[in-house]
Amino acid sequence: MPTVAVVGAQWGDEGKGKVVDALAAEAEVVVRYQGGNNAGHTVMVGDRTFKLRLIPSGILYPGTLCVIGNGAVVNPLVLLQEIEGLQAQGVDTGGLRVSDRAHVIMPYHEILDRLEEGARGSRAIGTTGLGIGPCYVDKAARLGLRVAELVDPDAFRARLEEILPLKNRMLECLYGHRPLTVEEIMEAYAPAAERLRPLVTDTGALLRQAIAEGRRVLFEGAQGTLLDVDHGTYPYVTSSSASAGGIASGAGVSPRAIEKVLGVVKAYTTRVGGGPFPTELKGEEGDILRREGKEFGTVTGRPRRCGWFDVVATRYAARLNGLTDLAILKLDVLSPFDEVKIAVGYRVDGEVIDRIPARLDLMASAEPVWETLPGWRQDLTGIREWNRLPRAAQQYVRRIEELVEVPVAMVSVGPRRDETIQLRPLF
Q: Which positions are catalytic?
């Protein structure tokens, strides 16, 4: 049962797209099991850059079956645009399949997302405004519209006529927004639905069969563990289960089908939007990390908040996900520093703790307890073998491995596909 799951072990943006792209060379099936087009994966192949938002990164390998699972939410207009963009770059998208049970992001979801975020004022979460949260809200409230209905015009209209009056009441009465009509939504979505229909299937059955046949399956997470709706720094989280626990329900497979779980982290830490961030650097050091790491959102272009590596948060993610392996990315970004730091604990109300507090106010007041290590001041991007890394860089990686208590399988020293050092096989 050769299955590997890739999950973010920080606040997202860890570089999972590059890791999935590397592993997809060996995989036969790649699965996206949660999130929507609010998550972006950037993959560099030679001099070409691919920015993926919903389609699994395995799409760049011809012949690979790429699945958008039922736990994801799908904006059909964005998905079609992404397919066309890849085809224009010469990518074969024939292997893409979309779950008939995935929920559809509707125009009113995007409108409500922006209106609700604006109403929060200074307490805004920092959502992308793309309708992901409201779509998941409707899924839980039994007001959702699924892909199986989207691609059947009669079912689509019937479901829309049932839901839209409720949504219009919210738009008009709460926010003074004009009501939407069934016809305008049908007109906007029907052409996309028609083109997506051949891709729609029972992907859960497809995946269960692939696993039973012993095919190599790779599960691709979006966002990160600390943004998980249950286990992240709530309420500054995403709306889906971004941890490994979301795979079984989001892909429609048994939990026993997951053999290895690879946690992806940067050699430092970043976060987008609001919420507590104990290791955040707001001065020159943070600016260096942002500049050297090109820390701007794939989807929104927003500058990311940057800070030193947080062992407390990463060890929490490791235990929650049951990580079997760790991938450390962007080690090269730390090269300008004479010293590098790791947060090995938090000081909260005068007490040193090694856990993530559930209460937001305690997490927001946490002060990191630092461990300082020597830097290496050497360009790493041309290095492809572990023993050629500077000794200080090796020590830094091994110290993270020791503190997180998970073996490191992969180290990245640049953004390109080939700028990776493999230490342990995964498939």
A: 13, 41
